[in-house]
Design a protein that fits this description.
alpha/beta; 256 residues; 18% strand; single chain; 10 helices; 7-stranded mixed sheet; 2 domains; Rossmann fold
């Protein structure tokens, strides 16, 4: 198992809350929202394997990611925690809740459903990353300009460029394990749950009203696996409601 890197965002002494990021992200994606949540929780954001500062491993699937999370909780003496997962992190959190319900105080899933996906946009993102010649790279801005041939969104190009860093010689390298993540994309798109998987504890699904990841047509599917789920729709938000409408996201998560 991988020993996950984590960032403590405050609230020590309060009930623990673990934040899981999405594909190609890291704990940094949760820093601002996580500090807002620290008014009610001890908030810890983790890097998934092959992302951020966590170890690079040859295996990438939801089963090993759940095992990484259980190991991290054991290492830090946490019997239970509220687990909040966005996108890929949400798929990990859903499987964790179904396989280890005794470890989950409350489940919060952000803009993802328990189903298979096929993400053409992700394939364009990975194509852009794999086409980038690091030997000729001058800066992150240079990378963003090169991404523009495949990716029109300025914000997404900025997001992807955060996975680049310079070593002690000034050479650029990927923080993510790009070959393993590229190969694992079809696996990560699949539903992390089996048809009979169920978690009956307190559950909140939060979706962006402008997102296609968790449309109203999927709500029955959600309730089939998570019968106690409350589904909150955040207006004027897409796939990243915790960033795009942070105050409303925090309000929904803190509501009992």
């Amino acid at each position: 198992m991988a020993t996950l890197y984590h960032v403590d965002l405050g609230g020590a002494g309060q009930p623990p809350l673990l934040l899981l990021h999405g594909m190609l992200g890291s704990s940094r994606n949760w820093q601002t929202t996580g500090r807002d949540l620290a008014q009610a929780y001890h908030v810890i954001a983790l890097d998934a394997r092959n992302h951020g500062h966590s170890p690079q491993e040859p295996i990438m699937n939801y089963a090993v990611m759940v095992a990484d999370l259980v190991q991290w909780m054991d290492q830090h003496g946490l019997a239970r925690a509220t687990v909040v997962g966005h996108s890929m992190g949400g798929k990990t959190a859903m499987l964790m809740a179904c396989q280890h319900p005794e470890r989950i105080q409350r489940l919060v899933v952000v803009d993802i459903a328990p189903k298979d996906y096929f993400w053409p946009a992700h394939r364009e993102e990975f194509a852009a990353l794999n086409e980038l010649n690091l030997n000729h790279l001058v800066s992150r801005q240079d990378a963003e300009e090169r991404f523009s041939t495949r990716i029109s969104s300025y914000g997404l190009r900025k997001f992807l460029s955060t996975n680049l860093e310079q070593d002690e010689t000034g050479a650029w390298r990927w923080v993510i394990n790009l070959p393993v993540l590229t190969a694992a994309l079809p696996v990560m798109e699949k539903n992390s749950l089996q048809p009979t998987d169920t978690y009956r504890g307190p559950t909140l699904f939060i979706a962006g009203a402008n997102s296609l990841y968790l449309p109203p047509s999927d709500h029955e599917l959600v309730l089939g696996h998570f019968p106690q789920a409350r589904i909150a729709i955040i207006p004027d938000a897409g796939h990243n409601p915790h960033v795009e409408q942070r105050a409303e996201f925090v309000r929904q998560l803190l509501a009992v």
